[in-house]
Design goal:
The chain is an alpha/beta fold and 704 residues long. The protein has two domains: 2-412, Na+/H+ antiporter like fold, CATH 1.20.1530.20; 432-703, Rossmann fold, CATH 3.40.50. The protein is 62% helix and 9% strand. The chain has 29 helices and twelve strands. The strands form two sheets. A ten-stranded mixed β-sheet has the order 3-2-1-4-5-12-9-6-7-8, with helices on both faces. It has a two-stranded antiparallel ribbon with strand order 10-11. Helix 1 crosses helix 14, helix 11 (202-237) runs antiparallel to helix 12 (243-261) and helix 28 packs parallel to helix 29. The longest helix is centred in the first third of the chain and has 36 residues, at 202-237.
Length: 704
């Protein structure tokens, strides 16, 4: 090879990437997963096609050189870890908990039947396809595992493609596949321990299982909180490009190394790292997309193409091996279908639901390819067995989508399911459910205390990670800090009170640039409570608040205490919500409903009609849009369990009508949505500024 090793390595990567992505594009266009195209790229570039048509040129590009094989295998192994990381990040453990009995019975039965059949089939295979003739147990275990497990990525992609992932049975299928994947990596971890020691040593197997159990217990309890805090710290304190991505990769490699030291496979560490990272409080969609692009642009195509290189289709030319390949496909399909069907019925599902579940779980794909690649690398699988398993994965996955589409069309939609789907569809258009972080910028004035209490209610309702930035000021020793106020308000809601403390962080604003530095850490909403938010006899904000509204691109919730009632966390809130149908009013509606839901209060939605809409001629038609706004608020409240009352009035000055409704202290809080005017600086509209000076009820202005 001489000095050409790096050049040949680059040529291999170019071919694997280019051919894999092009064939993946072709598969996408015909409705199949792109990974099949990438696998096919490896097959075409392997001994089956390229090696047969142009053996000399293949020997030049893919020479039998240990150094090159080690280099390309290293890239492929990193690809395995990254794919498992992404799979873990997409794993939603809450799905598994919703229908625990049906999920567990379907998963265990769906694994046990094909696993047992696969192990039995391994002992019936010709001896020349078993790598270790003296001890075929590890090979049998690998084959049984590969035949028993569904691929959660392929299942999820298929459910999304046919539009049923949000249905109850769709989530059941995905939940069971998630549990399948989790069990798979525990099984592989144990098998790897057996393979490492070369025999079934009960002490070593027990040590592997015990170490795995302790590792999982730590990672899924204390560990995921530590990882969440690490990601928050890295995001907030490091200034280099994409520091969170680096932190995620370090966590993945550290856990992979840990499982390797425990005597189990690195795959389990990478998968668990993904689960932990996926539970981070600020794993934004942007960060996940960056990581996904990094994986799918380079590592995934290389891994699947290298996996395809290991296939030799000439194996199937042998009638005996072709017959066994058909047997592998039949055992995998029938065993998985029968086991999952029986498990679904035992779990309380109907016959049609069980049929849909069994059909959906027959999708293999990436998980089987990864398991087969691990077995091949460890010497537990021969090239012939590897080819059989990958062929099984391709055939079962390609057959599943049309079958599942046919079955799902016959599973009836229940009344509760229809309501849930309607609610989830409505939430897609809402802003608040997408929020992850809130900043609380307050002093110790009544406005600051009001903002802190409302922020606590909001954080508890939506489980937002909340940072409190205390503005310096005089404070008596008996007064609590703003962080404590936010935490107390969060606990007072009764919604997961154990998490209230961990939801709230505090940072002192001891430097002039503290606010600017904090805003750069990424927030979705800011609650502001300062002594004088708006300048007297002006529409402009106080200097400190002006810096905030000018620098922050998202919504700012500005608290104005007035001469109002007791703290909002002390009693259920009776909230007045003026609504006009604008985007700002819509956001204010979502936030007001969050306060009411957290405090067990209610909302009165007020719509003020223009006099010209209330003439005798236009009474019916002119009022229709305004009434529909109130109906929409009522629907949003009903979905969130918040009572909503509608109130209408007619006035050419809506601010005067709002003031009239607030007289007499009937309401505890008024939530107002407004757009800021833009000049040299941002400022309030004249009506909003005037209204805030006149009202005595505590108010929260949602401004952006």
């Amino acid at each position: 090879m001489g000095d050409h090793t790096l050049a040949i390595f680059a040529a291999e990567l170019i071919l694997l990437l280019l051919v894999g992505r092009l064939l993946g594009e072709g598969m996408n266009r015909i409705g199949q997963p792109a990974l099949f195209g990438q696998l096919l790229a490896g097959v075409l570039l392997g001994p089956s096609v390229f090696g047969m048509l142009a053996p000399h040129w293949r020997a030049v590009v893919f020479p039998d050189d240990k150094t090159l094989k080690t280099m390309i295998d290293a890239v492929s192994q990193i690809g395995i870890l990254l794919l498992l990381l992404l799979t873990g990040m997409e794993t939603n453990l809450a799905l598994v908990r919703r229908r625990t009995r049906a999920v567990i019975s379907s998963s265990l039965s769906g694994i046990a039947v094909p696993f047992a059949c696969g192990v039995a089939l391994a002992y019936a295979l010709p001896k020349d396809v078993i790598p270790s003739h003296d001890n075929p147990l590890v090979t049998a275990l690998f084959l049984g595992t590969a035949l028993a497990i569904s691929s959660v990525k392929i299942v999820a992609m298929t459910l999304m493609d046919i539009g049923v992932i949000r249905r109850d049975i769709g989530q059941m299928i995905l939940s069971t596949a998630i549990l399948d994947d989790t069990i798979a990596w525990i099984i592989i971890a144990v098998i790897s321990g057996i393979a490492t020691h070369g025999t079934v040593d009960l002490q070593n197997v027990g040590a592997s299982i015990g170490g795995t159990a302790l590792f999982l217990a730590f990672c899924l309890t204390i560990g995921h909180r530590l990882v969440g805090r690490l990601i928050v710290w890295v995001n907030d304190h490091m200034t280099i490009d994409v520091p969170v991505i680096t932190a995620i990769l370090v966590v993945m490699l550290a856990l992979a190394l840990t499982t390797e030291l425990l005597g189990v496979h690195t795959a389990l560490g990478a998968f668990v790292a993904g689960i932990m990272i996926g539970q981070s409080p600020i794993l934004t969609e942007h960060i996940e997309n960056e990581l996904r692009g990094f994986i799918f642009a380079f590592f995934a195509p290389v891994f699947f193409a290298v996996a395809g290189l290991g296939m030799d289709l000439r194996t199937l030319m042998n009638p005996t091996l072709l017959l066994f390949t058909v047997a592998v496909i039949a055992v995998a399909s029938v065993g998985k279908f029968a086991g999952a069907l029986a498990g679904g019925r035992l779990g309380g599902l109907s016959t049609l639901e069980s049929l849909a579940l069994a059909t959906g779980l027959n999708a293999r794909g990436s998980t089987e390819v990864i398991i087969a690649s691990i077995g091949l690398a460890m010497g537990a699988l021969s090239t012939e067995l590897y080819t059989m398993i990958v062929a099984m994965a391709v055939v079962t996955t390609m057959a599943m989508p049309p079958m599942l589409r046919w079955v799902m069309a016959r599973v009836p939609l229940g009344e509760e399911e229809a309501k849930r789907l309607e609610k989830e569809e409505a939430e897609l258009a809402q802003a608040v459910p997408k929020m992850e972080r809130a900043l609380v910028y307050v002093d110790d004035s009544p406005n600051g205390r009001l903002a802190a209490q409302l922020a606590g209610l909001f954080a508890a309702r939506h489980q937002l990670l909340t940072t409190v930035l205390d503005v310096p000021g005089e404070k008596s020793p008996e007064q609590t800090t703003s962080r404590e106020k936010v935490t107390e308000a969060a606990r007072a809601t009764g919604e997961e009170p154990g998490n209230a403390q961990s939801l709230v962080m505090a940072r002192p604003a001891t430097r002039d640039d503290a606010l600017q530095r904090e805003l750069g850490r990424g927030y979705d909403i800011v609650f502001a409570g300062l002594d004088q938010p708006v300048q007297p006899h002006s529409r402009h904000f106080d200097a400190r608040l002006q810096v905030l509204v000018s620098s922050f691109k998202g919504p700012v919730a500005i608290a104005v205490h007035g001469a109002g009632a007791a703290g909002p966390s002390d009693v259920p809130l009776d909230i007045l919500l003026p609504t006009s149908g604008t985007a700002d009013s819509r956001l204010a509606t979502e936030i007001a409903l969050a306060f009411a839901g957290a405090s067990k209060g209610n909302v009165t939605a007020l719509h003020v009609f223009e006099p010209r809409e209330d003439t005798a001629l236009l009474r019916g038609r002119g009022r229709r849009p305004g009434i529909s706004l109130l109906v929409d608020v009522h629907r949003l409240g009903k979905r969130g369990g918040v009572p909503v009352k509608g109130l209408t009035a007619t006035s050419s000055q809506p601010d005067r009508e709002i003031q009239r409704q607030l007289k007499g202290g009937r309401f505890d809080l008024v939530v107002l949505g407004t757009s800021l005017r833009q000049g040299e600086t941002k400022f309030l509209g004249s009506r909003m500024a005037s209204l805030l000076r006149r009202i005595r009820t505590p108010a929260l202005v949602i401004a952006r």
